[in-house]
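Please review this one.

:::
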Amino acid sequence: MLDGAAFHHRFVRWVHQVFGVNKGQVVAVDRKTVRGNHERGLGKGAIHLVSAWASESGVTLEQLHVTDKSNEISAIPQLLRLLDVSDWVVTVNALGCQTKTAQAIRDEGADYALWIKDNHAHRH
């Protein structure tokens, strides 16, 4: 009989207090695959999560399940909306190096560092 949104808000606030999550940290956003949880015989693939990791505090701030019909690129803006990353630096690996991802980070009031591969010659 708990209000899920209210519980989530209070839990996140508690995590920030306990682990010393302060503004200005680097938040690393990355996709992780939960290994060994797939059931190929039933046609179920592995679970994919996009996570936000506060590097200085050493704690995962938020995770979002990436659905089968989606991908990491579309999940990153959703994840950022769940967090208050204003005045933080958000890092994203090469897969997330997209104009829309950079704009989503800026829309949330954060700065970014995106990993660019050599195959983006004009950006590299």
Observations:
- Strands lie at 26-34, 47-54, 59-66, 89-92, 111-114.
- Residues 24 and 109 are 11 Å apart (CA to CA).
- The first strand starts at residue 26 and ends at 34.
